[in-house]
Amino acid sequence: MDSHFETLIVERSEGVVTVTMNRPARKNAANGLMWRELLAVLEDVATDRNDRVMVLTGAGDAFCSGADLGDAADVAGRPGDPYLVQMRALADVALRLHRLPKPTIAKVGGVAAGAGMSMALGCDLVVASDTARFSQIFSKRGLSVDFGASWLLPRFIGMHRAKELAFFADIISAQEAADFGLVNRVVPANELDAFVDGWAARLAAGPTLALSMTKTMLNNSFSLSMDQALEEESRSQAVNFGTADTMEALRAFVEKRDPRFEGR
After folding, report:
1. Could you tell me which residues come within 8 angstroms of residue 1 by beta carbon, excluding any fewer than 6 positions away?
2. Which residue range forms the structural domain that includes residue 223?
3. How confident is the model over 215-234, as pLDDT tens digits?
4. What is the DSSP string of 216-247?
5. Does residue 170 share a domain with residue 60?
6. Which of 56, 43, 55 is nearest to 15 (CA)?
7. DSSP secondary structure, 55-96, as one string
8. How far apart (Å, rounded) are the C-alpha atoms in residues 192 and 255?
9. DSSP per-residue codes, 14-43
10. Which residues are paired to 108 by β-bridges?
């Protein structure tokens, strides 16, 4: 466990790094320090070969209630920075999460609101307890959407539903979020940890480089033509055939056993 963070708990086990936002008294609302620490963790996970999948979650009974607006001088960047500079610092975290070259799972128990909801959607997979709640709360605070929500929501659920969530800032249940297409799975609260542990273990045991390239291609797919997408697939497969993991998978296929991927 990494203990040098004030607002996060970082735990590593068998290729899975679990990052827990740890301000339960504030429903894990993110202040400037938390954003800075999240950026540091994401940069570390991106380059650590032993980290093969990341789980993002919150302590106590919440995922993240959004940015902590209690200290207006320390919203995201360094205390006292102009707001545009601070919001660009928050955007750096969103982009680092989006570009992380490893699979990410948001484990959502309780509320995920504002930037907290956007953060969950910024992960590759979202698993929510049946008691979770989601809201693009921004308009009720006199704010517009952030942390990538303007890009994420229309791609996930279409423009009209995206505008409905953003304009009205209603609180929706986990099941409603799943029906909208925002959540992969809704599970009973007492099964959330076990379910996410299972998915994380499967991803950690997978072909790291191949999954990384698949993630990048899917993330970029909306901006590419079919011709461009096929060319990216060809390049990725050419890389894969030069990796130890693909060679191991081919041997395992011939030997009729499960492959043992090492992430190289």
Report:
1. 9, 10, 11, 12
2. 208-255
3. 999 999 999 999 999 999 99
4. HHHHHGGGS-HHHHHHHHHHHHHHHTTSHHHH
5. yes
6. 55
7. EEEESTTEEE--B-TT-TT-SSSSTT--HHHHHHHHHHHHHH
8. 36
9. TTEEEEEE--GGGTT-B-HHHHHHHHHHHH
10. 128
Asked whether residue 2 carries a pLDDT value surpassing 70, the answer given is no
Rounded to an integer, what distance in angstroms lies between the CA atom of residue 158 and that of residue 211?
26
* 122 token code pair: 């910024």
Q: How do residues 16-57 score in pLDDT, each as one tens digit?
A: 999 999 999 999 999 999 999 999 999 999 999 999 999 999
**Residue at 225 is within a domain:** yes
pTM of the predicted protein model: 0.95
DSSP 148: T
Structure tokens at 33: 């320090």
Contact 16, 204 (CB under 8 A): yes
Average pLDDT for residues 109-133, to the nearest whole number?
A: 98
228 and 170 in a common domain: no
86 exposed, middle or buried (CB, 10 Å; 0-12, 13-18, 19+)? buried
